[in-house]
Amino acid sequence: METAAVSKLKANLSEYLLKVKLGEEIVVTDRGRPIARIIPVRRGEKGISPHLLTLEKAGLARIGSGKLPENFWTRPRPKDVEGVALDNLIDERRGGR
Fold first, then answer.
1. 9: phi > 0 → left, psi -120 to 50 → alpha, else beta; which?
2. What values do phi and psi take at 64, rounded to 5?
3. Class of domain 1-69
């Protein structure tokens, strides 16, 4: 945990915010007395489900950082002319994977 005076924090805010982004805590002091803590926001506090965070920690999922286009859910799905998706689903249900 690093300590920074208000004046030093104001002069080097970007540097300190980068440290916080990387997981470090910053204690802000005024005349040598602690007055605040700057801590990183935990991902679960951003509305991400704990189950998804568990999958990410296990390396089974990756949480996206971008936004989906507004029409994402209403777009027509691509045609699976060869039936690959259905074949894979049937194979998986039969225990082939």
1. alpha
2. -70, 160
3. alpha beta
